[in-house]
Specification:
With about 220 residues, the chain is of the alpha/beta class. The chain has two domains: about 120 residues; about 70 residues. Helix content is about 45%, strand content about 10%. α1 packs parallel to α2, α3 packs across α4 and α6 packs across α7.
């Protein structure tokens, strides 16, 4: 049994924590990469991260072709979640909260999972924050009472208004303060964020990794 997983900033090498010789890790996918992977005859392909702006994105038809060869294709966290929401009716296996939100129409835009990051050689360090992570974080802050639901919704709207290459927590807090939102509440949030922010993309990517490992172990 063999699996190929495309991953980058959502699950960088230092976070993978699974010693599974049957898994081959590849960098974020671009158009043609899934087709090329399928030609090597894996049993499973996992799509987490992929490029979509500077190069052509993973093509729906190459995923469909891979599945037609009997390969199980899993998707989560980033472009994998997007493609799974579009192709689950054809057999692609979507995993995680982000996939579910795209599937259910809660999320629609590609920029929800977009992130600016550093190179592979440095471990794909994130330079901005994905919108899906901010949604999860502000929702959690509202759930436990750090924010009111109304303020959480305003912060989500503020974050969404930023271009993904400019979307950071500092930028959101600065814009929120400039718009007149409660200074005291924003200070409380700024204190809470460093230890409590939610990385939903990483959570979903780790869930995909566990699912692929289980799939390999029971076959």
């Amino acid at each position: 049994m063999k699996a190929i997983i495309f991953a980058g900033p959502s699950l960088p090498p230092r976070q993978r924590r699974v010693s599974e010789p049957a898994i081959e890790w590849r960098p974020p996918a671009r158009q043609g990469d899934v087709y090329g992977a399928a030609l090597t005859g894996p049993d499973v392909i996992g799509i987490i991260d992929g490029y979509f702006e500077i190069v052509p994105a993973v093509w729906h038809k190459e995923i469909l072709w891979a599945m037609a060869q009997g390969i199980d294709v899993f998707g989560a966290a980033s472009i994998g979640a997007l493609r799974a929401a579009e192709l689950d009716v054809f057999g692609m296996r979507g995993i995680g909260r982000i996939y579910e939100q795209f599937r259910d129409g809660v999320l629609e835009d590609d920029d929800e999972v977009a992130v600016l990051h550093g190179p592979e050689e440095l471990g794909y360090p994130p330079l901005t924050e994905p919108m899906v992570n901010m949604r999860a974080t502000f929702d959690e802050a509202a759930r436990i009472g750090v924010l009111t639901p109304e303020l959480a919704a305003q912060l989500i709207a503020t974050a969404k208004s930023l271009f993904y290459k400019e979307r950071t927590y500092d930028a959101v807090l600065q814009r929120a303060a400039a718009s007149g939102l409660s200074a005291a509440a924003l200070r409380d949030l700024a204190t809470w964020l460093p230890s409590n922010r939610i990385d939903q993309k990483r959570c979903d990517a780790a869930t995909l990794l566990a699912a692929v490992s289980t799939r390999l172990s029971i076959s």
